[in-house]
Amino acid sequence: MINKECEIVKDLIPNYMENEVSSSTKDFIEEHIKKCNDCKNLIEELKKDKIKEKNNEKIEETLKIDYLKKYNEKIKLLKTTAILITLVILFIWIYIFAKNLYIKNHYEYTHNIISTVYERTKDLKEKNFSVVTTYSDGSKIEFYYKDGKYKECYIDDDGISGYINYGVEKEDGISYVLQFQKNGDKILGIGSPMRISSSGGELMETSPLRKVFFLNDFYKMGKRESLSLEIRENKYNEKECIVVRYKINNSEYEEMWIDKEEMLVMKDINNELDNIWQCNYTWQVGNVTDEDVSIKNQKIDQVETQQDEMYDEVLDLLQN
Ligand SMILES: [Zn+2]
Q1: By the 8 A CB rule, do 21 and 13 touch?
Q2: Separation of 38 CA from ligand 1 center, angstroms?
Q3: Ligand 1 center to residue 22 CA distance, Å?
Q4: The Cα angle at residue 296 between residues 122 and 205, in degrees rounded to 5
Q5: Mean pLDDT (whole number) for 93-117
């Protein structure tokens, strides 16, 4: 009898474990295990197994969740890193782009100002002109230009102080200067106008800013180098000016003040090694005669130097 019941109970146990039996079947099974240790033990075993299984499932679940969490965190970190790298690259790219654009605009802007000043000065040549440069100590340089010939005199309170330069521009655009001693009877040197100094035939380089303005040497100044030019606006003698500052280094600079209306250089400031000098330019158009620029009447007794093969040709050009 017990064995027969055991058979039935064993068949029912799986459903009983899952609570899928009617209450009467449940009662029947529970009545049976009160008197049958075999079945009771079997159920106990199965219950234990089930708990174990559940625990394993739980552990597995926890592991799975842990893994997913870590995976998600990893993905999140990767995403954040990718976004950061993209932002950094984008920022660098925008910075480089903006800087290059700024350099290009600055170069074009300064180039435009300087070229305009140069062209304006060139236009004056067609009408003939003079310009007087007055230094802060009162000394002056008078410059006369007519038909490709020019004269430059150094003047102080006592009259002509240093040298007189006579220059001629040749067809190829190159210009030559003969330098005469104060009294005008001795030729001291011959050379290019920007290299021949007031110190007697000695060749000297001119400043970068002067080169840029008077020789339109701007092409030698690269886009990046043009950053050493600062542009601002200011007033001088009640005239609106564009001021171009050339930064030599942190404390030294050179400035050209340009009359905004005339586009001619009005003032020149040079601050080098705590030594500041300044000069003003006074321009006059249409006032120069042939006599002002010719050496026809110049007495030449003595030639001290013939450092250039161009000497005879230049002398000839200047005498006619
Ligand atoms: Zn049994």
Answers
A1: no
A2: 6
A3: 19
A4: 45
A5: 91
